[in-house]
Amino acid sequence: MKYTAIIDGEPLAIELRRLQPTIIEAQIGGRKYLIDAITVEPGVYWFIWNNRSMEISVVANGDSYAVSLEGRGVEVEIVNARRALRRAAQHGLTGAIELRAPMPGKIVKVLLGEGAEVQANQGIVVMEAMKMQNEIRSPKKGIVKKLRVKESAAVNAGDLLAVVE
Fold first, then answer.
1. Which residues in the chain come in under a pLDDT of 50?
2. pLDDT at position 126, please?
């Protein structure tokens, strides 16, 4: 699974892949880590990495998480494409808005091309995921400045589909 985490105001790309029940391959900011991760109790985890063991606690704090690792605390926000779009829609949309794939899937239809006028809540592409078709809509009125996908293209969660300005 791919995520974007915001830590100290900086985005960080994270990709996690479970190799065995407790073994996780984590790619964080372009570096790969092999971690043995054990859930001690809800919100408390024991990681073994590079012959080091670490206790990590994670506590939900509104839209973010308070993460404590070896006595050092940090606020982490996990960016979810759907939530980011909803939050942007609630705060008035100015400037360019990136439309990103909410989950892995396939683009089955492109509804609007670059340069096309788009209305708020109008579909730009149709994406198939988990055998369901979802219309990816613009959260605002504007112009499709960039279209980054073509029909039949496979996309991962978080991939840029289009930019509306």
1. 85, 88, 90-91
2. 93
120 and 140 Cβ atoms separated by less than 8 Å: yes
Q: What local confidence, expressed as pLDDT, does residue 91 receive?
A: 46
Whole-angstrom CA distances from 19 to 37, 41, 121, 158 are: 11, 21, 40, 22
Q: How far apart are CA 123 and CA 110, in angstroms?
A: 9
pLDDT 10s digits, 63-75: 788 889 877 888 8
| CA distances in angstroms from 95 to 59, 88, 164, listed in the order given | 33, 11, 8
Which residues, in sequence order, are bridge partners of residue 69? 56, 72
Distance CA(58)–CA(49), nearest Å, equals: 18
Spatial neighbors of 58 by CB under 8 A, at least 6 apart, are: 43, 44, 45, 65, 66, 67
Token output for 2: 């791919």
Residue where the block lists tokens 């396939």? 106
What pLDDT score was predicted for residue 81?
53
- Distance between CA 52 and CA 104 in Å, rounded? 34
- Going edge to edge, which strands form the sheet with 97-100? 97-100, 160-164, 142-147, 117-118
The pLDDT assigned to 72 comes to: 86
pTM of the model: 0.47
